[in-house]
Amino acid sequence: MRMSAPTVELMDYVDVIARYAPVLGMEVHVELSTATKMFCGCPTEFGADPNTQVCPVCLGLPGSLPVVNAKAVESAIRIGLALNCSITPWGRFARKNYFYPDQPKNYQISQYDEPIATEGHLDVVLDDGSTFRVDIERAHMEEDTGKSLHVGGATGRIHGASHSLLDYNRAGVPLIEIVTKPITGAGERAPEVARAYVTALREVLRSLAVSDVKMEQGSLRCDANVSLMPVGASVFGTRTETKNVNSLKSVEVAVRYEMRRQAAILASGGTIIQETRHFNEADGSTSPGRRKETAEDYRYFPEPDLEPVAPSADLVERLRATIPEYPWLRRGRIQSEWELSDEVMRDLVNAGALDLIIATVDAGAPANEARSWWVAYLTEKAKEHEVALEELPITPAQVAEVIALVEAKTVNNKVAKQVVDHVLAGEGDPKAIVESKGLGMVSDEGALRTEVDKALAANPDIAEKIRAGKVQAAGKIVGDVMKATRGQADAARVRELVLAACE
Q1: Would you say the pTM of this structure is higher than 0.85?
Q2: pLDDT, tens digit, for every residue of 246-261?
Q3: Do 434 and 401 meet the contact criterion of CB atoms below 8 Å apart?
Q4: What region holds the Asn/Gln amidotransferase domain (predicted)?
Q5: Residue 488: helix, strand or coil by DSSP?
Q6: pLDDT at 455 (0 to 100)
Q7: One domain for residues 262 and 396
Q8: Nearest to 478 by CA among 454, 452, 446
Q9: 144 with 174: CB under 8 angstroms?
Q10: How many whole angstroms separate alpha carbon 109 and alpha carbon 359?
Q11: Is the residue at 325 inside a domain?
């Protein structure tokens, strides 16, 4: 018989804040979107068949030697610079020793006392528009671990499973771990600050184009450390670490839950166990994982098979020049320049359209036209194909090209949608599609007059109404001509020819 889970006491949140001060620590792991792994040439594509993207290096086979991925190092430096960190001019990798089957060589190549970036900060925007500074302790490079699939249990975790399957495709993927300093002073807004920080960090990483930051695929994983201390105290309490929280909302929920759970334990005279905890999406609770190791447990020592990482000052400055404007600052500037209301701006952000629109404008399209295409026809196509807007197989540059074709009257709006459909079908770029499929606008005046005369002759009653001054009747003739030309005529010009023919 299956036993029910024990009831966990929770303190009312108002009482928590009245009695305790929260201290947070956020550890965010970011998979870099490099073509190959951190120390070998294996590909990093997500979703490949298990254990098809492995080699002797990432499997830790005897005699294999790692080589540092230069692109990953540059991405790590850019992340550090974007977080206002100092870049370490000389640092070594280390071996983090532990036994767990997700890392076949029984150690992880990481950075310990010489991380690539240190002492930074990120000012995050809260819901009311105020800002909260989160201090960054370090950002360091390491390799990701493999993925374990626990089979036979009720929860998908190792406890209660009958056996486990291991996929080493992810082992060795470049990873950046970003660790904050203790976050104090947030008070009742601590859960909000945690969510706002991860949200802002995710936006920064996306703007740097160093990761796809897809939390649902594990490209960005958040560990939330929470402890409580009595109001007025100066000594931090014992912390717990809720592992791998995989959505922005869940970060806030997990922190709030841990605050309420720990407060109830402390108020009853109990003690907090330093441990990792699992977040349960179904009910927003956390549950025990394993006792938390300390740095001494990992027996760090310098990695003997890798040379130190020593980025030159010139390289750092070249990379600094590539750091874009913070996304929230850019949004404010764009909103002002485009004269958008808060509501419209919020809708564009929530739809995932803003960055696409901006990129389309950067490619030469007018802002209004770019916005119209992304929030109307292309949003419809995304819903039709059940994909996110950014996952549509069309680039902002291609959308800008379609808009340019309409502006040049090479095609009209109706035909432009056909062109977009062909692009989405993978048939090429817009201009080439127009040429190869003969979709260009009919501009031959003689041909258009011939079609107008045919339509008028076929509808003498309507022609008579137009001659009698009922110009709205011209719509039927214009429609017939547009149909005859497969929609490739300029409807406004056709109307002019119809009215001229009936004078």
Answers
A1: no
A2: 899 999 999 999 999 9
A3: no
A4: 355-502
A5: coil
A6: 72
A7: no
A8: 452
A9: yes
A10: 37
A11: no
